C-alpha cells in the first residue's frame, strides 16, 4: 500500500491502491544484477542443457505485474485554478505529440511549486483524475514526504521500493542495490503510457532517480521548492502556484458553505477573504467551521478572524496537516540558520516588498549574501519575487514570521534590526532625492549604523524608478518609525518623499505622511522637522485646492523656519505662498511673496533657488498682466537653468514664457515654448506639470486657430487631470464641451 497524501487544505485520509485492471505478464531483466533474479530453485540443471554464461546474456524471467491505479481520492467540490488546469492540459497535449508538434524523446515533466497551503496536491490529484483515462497502463502516486510534521523525507531507496511494490514485483525478484532497483523500475515503465504523480518532493536529488526514461510517461511533481535544476537539466516545465484571487476565493467558500449563505452576508465574506489572504488552506479551515455550525452567521466567523488579526490562532484545523502554522513550519524548518534568521526578521519589516539592499541592512550582512538568502527563501516558497529584485509574502506568512521573531529574537535584536532598516531607507531615499531634484537644499541626517547598505543613483531616471517601486514601503517604514520611537527618521523620511509625491500627484499620501511627520517632530520638539512637515502639508493642500488650510500650514512653516534661522526654508515657504496667492486670485500678494523669496535666495547665495524664484516673479507679473516683465524675468531664469543643466527648472521657465507669448499675441512662439515644457516634463515623469502645460498648449493652439490640435492637447491633459484628481479637471472638461465636436 502507498501512504496517503498530505493533501494541502484537505485532511489526510487512508488511501489504498484501487483494484488493478488485471494481471500483465512482464518479462523482467535485472540490469546489472542478474544473479539476484535467478529462480529460487537450487537444483542442478540437466547436463544436456548447460546454464548460459552470465557474462554474455542477462536472464529474462516472466512475472506477473499489476496495472497500478494509485491516485488518492479527488476533492468533492474543486473550484478555481482554471489557468493552471489549462496549462496542465497543454502539457499533456504536447507530451502526446498532439497538434503536429515534434514527438517527445523523453518523459514529459511538470513541477507544481508554491508555498504551503496553496493546494498543490489538491490541484495535481484533481487534474490527474480528469485525465486518468489517457493513461491505460496505470497511474502511480507517491508522497515523498519532503515537507511534513515528522521531517523524515522519503529516501530514494524507500521511494524506488514503493514503486516496485506498486507493480507487485515479488520480493525475491527485486535486485539488491538501489541502482539496480532503479533500473528495474525504469524497465517496467518503458514503453508504457503512465501518469506518475510524485507529491511533496524535498529537492531534485530526491526526485531525479525516479524519473522514467520513456517518452510515453507524464510526470507531475509537487514541491515547496522550485526544483530549478530539473527545469534546467531535465527540461521540466514549471507551473508556479499562487494565491487565489478574490473571485476564486469566493467560489471556494460557495462550494463549501453554499451560495445562499455567501450571498446573504457579502461584507462578512469579503472580510474573510481578505484576512485569509487568498490561501486555500486558510479558506478551507474557515469554511469547515462555517459548515460545522450552519446556524452561525458568517459575520461571527469574520469577527473571530478580526479579533485574531496578526495571529494564526484562528487557522487551526484540528491536526498538523490542516493547521496553517504547522504547515508553514515544515518549510521553515528546512532552512539553514542564516536564511531562517532573515525570514524571522522579515516580520520586523513594515512594507509590502523588500529588495536585497534592505534585506542586507535588516540582518547586517553584505548585499550579495542577502541576495543568496532571499533566493533560498524564494525557492522554499516562503517569500515570492513579485517583481525583479522585489520580494514579499502574504499576510499569513507575515504573521508567522512575526510570531517566530518574537519567540526567537530578543527585543534588543529586533530593535537594532529595525534601526538598521530605517537607516537604509532614509539614507537611500535622501540619495535618490539628490538625483531626483538636485537643486533641493539637503537636510542633515545622522550617519548610518554598522551593517547598513545604502543605494547609489546615477541620475533622475534611476531615482524615479526606485521611488516608484519603493514609495509604498517608505510610507510604511515612516509610519512604523513614528510608532516605535524613531521620530527623527519619521519626519526625515517624509521630507525625502516630498518632491516625488508632489510631482507624481500622490497628494493624499503626501498629506498623510506629513501629518505623521508633524506629530513625530512635535513629540521630540524638533522645530526644523515641524517646519518641513508644515511645508509638506501646505503643498499637499494647495494641490488639492484647500487654499485656506494650505495658507495656515505655510505661514506656520515660514515662522518656524524664521525661528531656526533657515533662510532657504523661508524662501521655500514664500514661494509656496506665491503659488497660493495666484490660485486664489490674490496677485499682488503673490508678487510680494515671489519677490521676498528672490531676495532671500540671493542673500543666501543659493543660485538654483534664485533661478526658480526669478521664474516665479515673472509668473506673478504675468498674473498681473505685465507680460513684458514676465519675458524679462523668465528669460533670465531660463538662461540660469540651462547653465545649471536643471531640466526641471528649464521646463518651468519654458511654460512661463509660453504663457507670456500667448498673451502678447505671438501664438506660434507660445506653442513652441509649451511643447518644450511638455517634452521635458514628460521625460522626467512630472505628471502634474506635464498636464498643466498640455492645458495651456491647447489654449495657445485654439488661439492660433488649430481647433483639432487644441482638442487633442486638452483631451490628453484631461486624462491626466482625472487620474490625479486635479482641481482644474472640471474647468478643462467645460472647455472641451464648448469646443464641440470635431465637425462642429
Automatic annotation (TrEMBL):
Residue stretches of biased makeup (Low complexity): 1-24, 36-52
Chain positions of TPR repeats: 651-684
Keyword Cell cycle: no
Protein keywords: TPR repeat
Pfam families per the UniProt record, alphabetical: NB-ARC (PF00931), TPR_12 (PF13424)
Domain NB-ARC positions: 109-261
Domain of life (superkingdom): Bacteria
Region (Disordered): 1-52
PANTHER family: HTH-TYPE TRANSCRIPTIONAL REGULATOR RV0890C-RELATED, REGULATOR-RELATED
Protein name: Tetratricopeptide repeat protein
Organism (species): Streptomyces niphimycinicus
Amino acid at each position: 500500500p502507498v501512504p496517503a497524501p498530505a493533501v494541502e487544505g484537505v485532511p489526510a485520509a487512508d488511501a489504498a491502491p484501487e483494484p488493478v485492471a488485471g494481471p500483465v505478464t512482464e518479462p523482467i531483466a535485472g540490469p546489472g544484477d542478474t544473479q539476484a533474479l535467478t529462480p529460487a530453485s537450487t537444483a542442478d540443471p540437466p547436463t544436456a542443457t548447460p546454464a548460459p554464461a552470465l557474462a554474455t546474456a542477462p536472464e529474462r524471467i516472466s512475472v506477473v505485474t499489476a496495472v497500478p491505479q494509485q491516485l488518492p481520492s479527488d476533492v468533492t467540490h474543486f473550484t478555481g485554478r482554471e489557468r493552471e488546469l489549462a496549462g496542465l492540459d497543454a502539457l499533456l497535449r504536447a507530451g502526446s505529440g498532439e497538434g503536429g508538434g515534434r514527438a517527445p524523446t523523453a518523459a514529459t515533466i511538470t513541477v507544481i511549486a508554491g508555498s504551503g497551503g496553496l493546494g498543490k496536491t489538491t490541484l495535481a490529484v484533481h487534474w490527474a483524475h480528469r485525465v486518468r483515462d489517457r493513461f491505460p497502463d496505470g497511474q502511480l502516486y507517491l508522497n515523498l514526504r519532503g515537507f511534513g510534521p515528522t521531517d523524515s523525507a522519503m529516501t530514494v531507496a524507500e521511494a524506488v521500493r514503493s514503486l516496485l511494490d506498486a507493480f507487485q514485483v515479488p520480493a525475491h525478484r527485486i535486485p539488491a542495490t538501489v541502482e539496480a532497483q532503479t533500473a528495474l523500475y525504469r524497465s517496467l515503465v518503458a514503453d508504457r503510457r503512465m501518469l506518475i504523480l510524485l507529491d511533496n518532493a524535498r529537492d531534485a536529488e530526491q526526485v531525479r532517480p525516479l524519473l522514467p526514461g520513456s517518452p510515453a510517461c507524464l510526470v507531475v511533481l509537487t514541491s515547496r521548492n522550485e526544483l530549478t535544476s530539473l527545469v534546467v537539466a531535465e527540461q521540466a516545465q514549471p507551473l508556479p502556484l499562487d494565491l487565489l484571487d478574490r473571485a476564486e476565493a469566493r467560489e471556494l467558500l460557495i462550494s463549501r458553505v453554499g451560495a445562499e449563505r455567501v450571498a446573504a452576508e457579502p461584507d462578512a465574506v469579503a472580510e474573510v477573504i481578505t484576512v485569509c489572504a487568498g490561501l486555500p488552506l486558510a479558506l478551507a479551515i474557515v469554511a469547515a467551521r462555517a459548515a460545522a455550525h450552519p446556524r452561525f452567521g458568517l459575520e461571527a466567523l469574520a469577527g473571530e478572524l478580526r479579533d485574531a488579526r496578526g495571529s494564526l490562532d484562528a487557522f487551526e484545523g484540528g491536526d498538523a496537516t490542516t493547521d496553517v502554522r504547522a504547515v508553514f513550519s515544515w518549510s521553515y524548518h528546512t532552512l539553514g540558520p542564516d536564511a531562517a534568521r532573515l525570514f524571522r526578521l522579515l516580520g520586523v519589516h513594515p512594507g509590502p516588498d523588500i529588495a536585497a539592499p534592505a534585506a542586507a541592512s535588516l540582518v547586517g550582512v553584505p548585499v550579495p549574501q542577502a541576495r543568496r538568502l532571499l533566493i533560498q527563501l524564494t525557492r522554499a516558497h516562503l517569500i515570492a519575487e513579485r517583481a525583479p529584485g522585489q520580494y514579499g509574502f502574504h499576510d499569513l506568512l507575515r504573521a508567522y514570521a512575526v510570531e517566530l521573531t518574537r519567540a526567537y529574537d530578543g527585543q534588543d535584536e529586533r530593535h537594532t534590526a529595525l534601526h538598521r532598516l530605517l537607516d537604509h531607507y532614509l539614507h537611500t531615499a535622501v540619495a535618490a532625492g539628490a538625483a531626483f531634484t538636485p537643486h533641493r537644499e539637503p537636510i542633515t541626517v545622522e550617519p548610518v549604523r554598522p551593517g547598513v547598505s545604502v543605494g547609489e543613483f546615477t541620475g533622475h531616471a534611476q531615482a524615479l524608478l526606485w521611488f516608484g517601486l519603493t514609495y509604498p514601503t517608505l510610507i510604511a517604514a515612516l509610519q512604523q518609525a513614528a510608532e516605535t520611537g524613531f521620530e527623527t527618521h519619521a519626519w526625515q523620511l517624509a521630507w525625502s518623499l516630498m518632491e516625488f509625491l508632489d510631482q507624481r500627484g500622490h497628494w493624499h499620501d503626501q498629506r498623510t505622511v506629513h501629518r505623521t511627520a508633524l506629530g513625530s517632530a512635535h513629540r521630540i520638539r524638533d522645530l526644523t522637522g515641524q517646519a518641513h512637515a508644515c511645508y509638506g502639508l501646505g503643498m499637499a493642500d494647495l494641490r488639492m485646492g484647500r487654499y485656506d488650510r494650505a495658507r495656515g500650514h505655510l505661514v506656520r512653516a515660514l515662522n518656524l523656519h524664521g525661528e531656526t534661522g533657515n533662510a532657504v526654508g523661508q524662501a521655500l515657504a514664500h514661494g509656496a505662498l506665491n503659488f497660493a496667492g495666484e490660485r486664489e486670485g490674490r496677485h499682488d500678494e503673490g508678487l510680494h511673496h515671489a519677490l521676498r523669496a528672490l531676495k532671500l535666495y540671493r542673500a543666501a547665495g543659493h543660485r538654483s533657488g534664485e533661478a526658480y524664484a526669478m521664474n516665479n516673479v515673472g509668473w506673478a507679473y504675468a498674473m498681473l498682466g505685465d507680460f513684458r516683465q514676465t519675458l524679462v524675468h523668465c528669460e533670465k531664469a531660463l538662461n540660469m537653468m540651462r547653465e545649471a543643466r536643471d531640466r526641471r527648472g528649464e521646463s518651468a521657465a519654458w511654460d512661463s514664457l509660453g504663457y507670456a507669448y500667448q498673451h502678447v499675441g505671438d501664438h506660434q512662439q507660445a506653442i513652441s515654448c509649451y511643447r518644450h515644457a511638455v517634452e521635458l516634463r514628460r521625460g522626467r515623469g512630472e505628471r502634474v506639470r506635464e498636464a498643466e502645460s498640455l492645458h495651456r498648449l491647447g489654449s495657445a493652439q485654439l488661439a492660433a486657430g488649430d481647433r483639432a490640435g487644441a482638442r487633442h492637447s486638452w483631451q490628453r491633459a484631461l486624462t491626466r487631470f482625472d487620474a490625479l484628481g486635479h482641481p482644474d479637471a472640471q474647468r478643462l472638461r467645460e472647455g472641451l464641451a464648448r469646443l464641440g465636436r470635431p465637425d462642429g
